[in-house]
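Quarterly update from the structural biology core.
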Amino acid sequence: MAHLLGAEGLHLEFPTRVVFDSVTLGIEEGDRIGIVGRNGDGKSSLLAMLAGRLEPDRGRVTMRGGTTIGVLDQADVLDDALTVGGAIVGDAPEHEWAGDPRIRDVIDGLVSDLGWDAPIGDLSGGQRRRVALAKLLVGDWDVIALDEPTNHLDVEAIGWLAEHLKRRWPANQGALLVVTHDRWFLDEVCTETWEVHDRIVEPFEGGYAAYILQRVERDRMAAATEAKRQNLARKELAWLRRGAPARTAKPKFRIDAANALIADVPEIRDRIALQSLAVSRLGKDVVDLIDAGVTFPATGTAPQRDVLRDVEWRIAPGERTGILGINGAGKSTLLGLVSGTVAPTSGRVKHGKTVQVRTLTQRLDELQDVWDEPVRVVIGRLRTTYSFGTGSKAAELTPGQLLERLGFSSAQLSTPVKDLSGGQQRRLQLLLVLLDQPNVLILDEPTNDMDTDMLAAIEDLLDSWPGTLLVVSHDRYFLERVTDQQYAILPGSDGAGRLRHLPGGVDEYLRLRALEQSAAAAPSRAGSAPAASAEPALAGADRRAAEKELAALERRMQKLGEQIDRAKHALADHDQSDYAGLGEKMKAIQEQQGEVDELELRWFELTEQLG
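Predicted structure, tokenized:
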């Protein structure tokens, strides 16, 4: 492969510390490199030096003649005076950019819902991010450098970006450098991972999963020097192997080595014990939403709007649920119904007598009253210990120990809250919420400003939290990691949002959204004629019967899934020399899985008819 970009003996020093010391790297045609590391260790500085935007104190960056580099910064650098179209294609005539398939694909994938003449200054943060990405991706670059490209993007936009980057260049052409904390994105796009730590850059083969495996091996060989990071990494690896089937099916690292490393790692969460403890803390009744709906009244020029309608959701003790939906779908309104901050305009919401709900918001609300106080003073006013875990794993930690577990050093305890980094403020905010001892915890985009190691630490903490957990997040990896099931808010035929269970998880949500978008585009493709429906709309008794069948299907699929999980675990205890017995058990599992597949097909048919 041809050489594109290189770095020799890079040294970078800030007034208070040395960031890099004698770093030498090379980037070849076909490289797809993810850059990970703790916040503040120099990931963005490394990217800036390689892109020629930051001069090293010593060493040099070399580039093959004629190589072009496109860069996406973390900071928003769009001109508010420009329009969406002007920011993306500049003054190019329409026939030039409209005739380029790649430019059309970028525009359709990222900004099709934005007005072409809309002023940049009127856009939200997420919309501006998509415009900035589109502006970069319509260009023709040999190397693309992305600094936190998934910030402010929803699950759909992140999925589109991953697919675009995978097919942007032919094999062994072009190069990608990406700094991101989105672990799903790293695994989906990257074939090599660079870890930035301790003034060096350490390369690993493969995406995030392969990097975790190799890091565990490295840490094991280094004995006890990084015991704490090793334990977290091993638990992370156990999740990667035992978690979502779509991820474990990818041959991105050596299965035998992975199995050996996690042989003595217990299940990520003891669900039965945690649910039992949740019942004892909550009782059997948590929050029931019964035919609940929310309508926003007309204000000024804005008409009345039905946000949610006919929401039926009975939240169970110990339930761990992720909520998906586009911006504006009604996710915050749904969580407001659960927390009691939003009153239903139809139906009712019933809260259990012992329910204590706390929400980790996207804003730093919990920190406003202690903004000028040192961290030590803030935690000094809290309870002396925090209990979590079950049985022999139960533990009592002081707030200081919890802070250490969340990545705070002793020196940072004397730092005023306002002077902490964004990630540190977010971690302190989570600690304040947890120490209030709620039994229902709502997390609204909790991964903002977190690096991959800190996300793993927070996931580890939540594994032992015995309560009901509801999560809204665009970070697909985090959502799948900490929740056991997912729901989506999708619009019904009247435009109001309906809550829908997703047996197929995030993949199913993306499929349903693609169907929805195709249906919406069909009238315009047919000259605004109504699109022909694959299934006639259901009404009256037929609709009620379909809804009843749908609920029965979901219960049956959940029951079968649990039976399959138990049967798979039982295989490990079976006599491994009894091939006949193992074969019978595997045949039974395959039959159950076949039944699940048939039920899912029927489920898809019903959901499309009811949609």
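The mean pLDDT is 82.
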